[in-house]
């Protein structure tokens, strides 16, 4: 009787669980598969970052236009300066990699001063190059919500990649105010 009780107790304890060897084998197989799959996800992640930045820029342009119409002009979009929040890739006036902000341009000089109210701020995703096709570090909008000056164009690409990269996108604003996103083969914006 005592022997039977001992066997049933052993049977209950031997059911379920993994040995350390089994666990190590499974972990090493998963690690090997992850190492093989990781490089194939890089282009997907790059394209996702560019898409996120493109949507943010497009949304900001729509918002700035609506605010300019509502306020009778006096709206400016300005790039966030280099070395802000650890971003070091926006060295020139045409580099908007760190992001941008929209302000109520109370003095109508086409730029956002320190005392002017910021209406929206967008930090661009890391590892995305946002380049303005022409112009400077700020954009002035008139009372009709149109760009005051030359038409706008931006190219957005993964960091250190050409505009021909499959994940690249362009954001164009026509002289009539139409905002559209273009594929890599159409970059740069021409109208």
Brief rundown of the structure:
With 191 residues, the chain is of the alpha+beta class. It contains two helices and eight strands; from the N terminus they run H-H-E-E-E-E-E-E-E-E. The strands form two sheets. The chain has a four-stranded antiparallel β-sheet with strand order 3-2-1-5, covered by helices on one side. Strands 4-6-7-8 form a four-stranded antiparallel β-sheet, with helices on one face.
Any overview of this molecule?
This protein is of the alpha+beta class and 191 residues long. Helix content is 34%, strand content 21%. A 4-stranded antiparallel sheet has the order 3-2-1-5, covered by helices on one side. Strands 4-6-7-8 form a 4-stranded antiparallel sheet, covered by helices on one side. The protein is elongated. The termini are far apart. The model has no long low-confidence stretch (mean pLDDT 87).
Shape type: elongated
Tally of DSSP helical segments = 2
Distance separating the two termini: 93 Å
Secondary structure: number of strands: 8
Mean pLDDT: 87
From the structure provided, what is the oligomeric state, counting identical versus distinct chains? single chain
Helix content: 25-40%
Low-confidence stretches: none
Q: Radius of gyration from the CA trace?
A: 27 Å
- Please summarize the sheet with the most strands: 4 strands, antiparallel
% residues in beta strands: 15-25%
Strand arrangement in the largest pleated sheet: 3-2-1-5
SS-derived structural category: alpha+beta
Helix/strand order: HHEEEEEEEE
